[in-house]
C-alpha cells in the first residue's frame, strides 16, 4: 500500500511540475508574440532603437515603448520616443487604447515647479531633512542619536510612495524608497537620507535649459544647473549640472529620468526575463487541451506502475 501511495504522489508531483513549466513557456511565447504583433502593426516603432514593455496586471494593460537615445555632451540618455497601450481581455483579444496626447505641451512654469520639487527632495535625502520632520512629536533614540518622525504626508511607506507618485512615474516612485536610507520604527518612517554630502547647493536659485523635445511632444529633457551655496575657491567648478526628463503619462506629467541618482523609468520597464510569471499574465495560446492531456498521461503512468507493482 505504501508503494502505491508513493507512486501516486510522485506521479502527481510530476504532473504539477509539468503544468508549471508549460505555463512559463506559454507565457514567454505568448508575450513575445503579442509584443511582436503590436510592434509590426504600428508605424510608431519603425525607427525604434529598442523595444521595451510593461504589463499592468491589475488592469490587464500591456504598454509597449519605442526607446531611443541621444548624446548630449558626455551624456548618453535613453528616452521614450513613443508608446502603444493595449487592453488584453481574458480570451486574449487585444483592444488598442487611445494614445495619451499632451494637452497643450509643457509650460516652463510647470517644468520648473516639478524640477524644484525634485531638487528639494534630493536636498532632504542628501543632507538636510529638517523640512520633512515633525518636531512636535517625541523622537526615537537610534544608537544614541535622536531621530524625529517624518511629517504626516510622509509618515508611512504607503503615504510616502503615494506622494512620490505625484512627482515621478510609478516605477521610479516604487524604487525610490529602496535606494534611500529611512529609519523605520513600528509602521512609521523616521530620518530620511544618509546625510553624507560634503558640500551644499543653493537649490532655490537653479537655472534650467530645455535641451531636447521628442517629436510627439511627450518627452522634454532639461539641463539643470545648481550652484554651491557658498564660495568654494578651492574647487575648479562652483556649480553642478543635472539632466531631468519629463514624460507625459496616463496620470499627467511625471519625472521619468534624472541623473541626480541615475533614476530612469526605462530601467524599470519590465521584460519577461526579470518578471515573475503569474497565472493572470496575458496569453494568446490555447491551453485548454494541454492541461487535461498532462493529467491523463500522469494518470496512465500511475495505473501502469500500479499494475506492474501488482504483478511483482
Describe the structure.
By secondary structure, this protein is α+β, with helices and mostly antiparallel strands. The protein is 31% helix and 30% strand. Strands 9-10-11-12-13 form a five-stranded antiparallel sheet. It has a four-stranded antiparallel sheet with strand order 1-2-3-4, covered by helices on one side. The chain has a two-stranded antiparallel ribbon with strand order 5-6.
Taking the sheet with the most strands, its summary is: 5 strands, antiparallel
Helix segment count? 5
What radius of gyration results from the CA coordinates? 27 Å
| Mean of pLDDT | 78
Shape: globular
Derived structural class: alpha+beta
Helix fraction?
25-40%
Give the SSE string. Answer: HEEEEHEEHHEEEEEEEH
Identify low-pLDDT runs. 13-29, 272-294
User: How many β-strands, per DSSP?
Assistant: 13
**What is the topology, as strand order, of the major beta sheet?**
9-10-11-12-13
Beta-strand residue percentage:
25-35%
Distance between the termini: 13 Å
Amino acid at each position: 500500500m505504501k508503494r502505491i501511495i508513493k507512486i501516486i504522489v510522485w506521479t502527481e508531483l510530476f504532473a504539477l511540475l509539468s503544468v508549471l513549466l508549460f505555463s512559463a513557456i506559454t507565457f514567454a511565447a505568448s508575450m513575445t508574440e503579442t509584443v511582436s504583433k503590436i510592434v509590426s502593426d504600428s508605424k510608431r516603432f519603425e525607427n525604434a532603437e529598442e523595444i521595451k514593455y510593461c504589463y499592468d496586471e491589475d488592469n490587464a494593460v500591456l504598454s509597449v515603448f519605442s526607446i531611443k537615445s541621444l548624446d548630449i555632451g558626455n551624456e548618453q540618455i535613453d528616452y521614450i520616443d513613443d508608446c502603444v497601450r493595449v487592453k488584453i481581455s481574458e480570451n486574449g483579444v487585444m483592444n488598442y487604447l487611445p494614445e495619451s496626447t499632451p494637452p497643450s505641451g509643457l509650460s516652463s512654469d510647470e517644468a520648473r515647479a516639478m524640477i524644484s520639487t525634485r531638487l528639494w527632495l534630493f536636498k532632504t535625502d542628501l543632507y538636510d531633512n529638517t523640512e520633512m520632520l515633525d518636531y512636535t512629536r517625541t523622537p526615537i533614540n537610534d544608537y544614541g542619536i535622536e531621530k524625529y518622525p517624518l511629517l504626516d504626508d510622509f509618515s508611512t511607506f504607503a503615504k510616502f510612495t503615494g506622494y512620490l507618485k505625484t512627482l515621478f512615474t510609478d516605477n521610479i516612485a516604487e524604487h525610490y524608497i529602496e535606494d534611500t536610507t529611512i529609519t523605520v520604527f513600528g509602521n512609521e518612517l523616521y530620518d530620511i537620507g544618509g546625510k553624507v554630502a560634503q558640500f551644499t547647493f543653493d537649490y532655490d536659485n537653479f537655472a534650467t535649459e530645455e535641451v531636447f523635445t521628442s517629436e510627439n511632444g511627450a518627452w522634454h529633457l532639461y539641463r539643470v544647473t545648481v550652484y554651491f551655496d557658498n564660495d568654494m575657491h578651492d574647487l575648479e567648478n562652483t556649480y553642478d549640472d543635472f539632466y531631468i526628463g519629463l514624460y507625459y503619462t496616463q496620470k499627467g506629467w511625471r519625472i521619468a529620468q534624472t541623473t541626480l541618482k541615475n533614476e530612469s523609468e526605462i530601467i524599470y520597464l519590465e521584460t519577461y526575463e526579470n518578471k515573475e510569471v503569474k497565472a493572470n499574465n496575458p496569453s494568446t495560446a490555447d491551453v485548454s487541451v494541454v492541461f487535461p492531456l498532462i493529467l491523463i498521461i500522469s494518470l496512465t503512468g500511475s495505473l501502469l506502475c500500479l499494475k506492474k507493482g501488482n504483478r511483482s
